[in-house]
Amino acid sequence: MDHNRRVELYAILSLIIAVFGCIASYLALPEIRIFLSNQSISNKTATAISSSDIKIPPSAPPSPSVEAKTSPTRVSPLPTPSAPKTTVAPSRTPSVQKNTVVDEQKRRDAEGFLILGDANYGINLDQALADYSKAIELDPKFGAAYSSRGRVYHEKGDLDEALADYCKAIELDPNFEATFVVRGGVYHEKGDLDEALADYSKAIELDSKYAVAYTNRGGVYYEKGNFDEALADYSKVIELDPKYAVAYINRGLVYHKKGLKSQAIADYTTYLRLRPDASNRSDIEQVICRLSGGLFLFSHCLGGTIPTQ
What we know:
Layout: H1 3-27, H2 104-121, H3 125-138, H4 143-155, H5 159-172, H6 177-189, H7 193-206, H8 211-223, H9 227-240, H10 245-257, H11 261-274, H12 281-291, H13 298-301
Helix pairs in contact: 1-2, 2-3, 2-4, 3-4, 4-5, 5-6, 6-7, 7-8, 8-9, 8-10, 9-10, 10-11, 11-12
């Protein structure tokens, strides 16, 4: 079989694998990671209500779980090949850096392994890791391959390796905002809030309409006790996307923390209307009723549910 025929067969195989991989990734696409108190409302007293009364279990995040802590919902920092920007971290496909050293054949092969890695990401992480590593071997200045391999390390819980790859990707392509968000996510998980804040802010500087970056920066502000700044970021997310449910639950937590009960009730209620199937629905309904002294939608406080329309 001549060389041209092998190249054609390789391209067709890569396309088929990519299609099935994207379908698998779509079906398994996680939406958010939650970092809230794991104490149930039944263990609280009626007179001691705080934002931690809301128990929100994790929803199969794409990266490893960490110790639960009281803070708003943080959108998963891990991008997927076809994720929409307003709900999760966006598609990770920065422009290919020009590299006169690597010949065109190696570049095409590197891009082929990047495609294979994206296809395998939702199926076999170890194989995806091998594919991205091969792409880097073929083209050591392929920023997208470093970002993608960092994504795999991140999901596997190897934060140091993920951080190293994200840093290299930023070195090669310092204008791709999504890489700052995923690196900020690693810093956030490692407890380095200042570095996380800097990366989320840089992403916003590069794209002032990047809802995920505002959401995650709001979470850092919340954890640092800067509630006014957190409130501003969550309000900005709602301005950008009025149907972004995560922003309402997060802003409600800030209002709750500041003692602004009516605003907190309004945001919690909006969240439930946007997410009628939320697994934490009963917890939030109980908190709404307790914040209102049992007067808000009284019949629902007696065991019913808040209407979704």
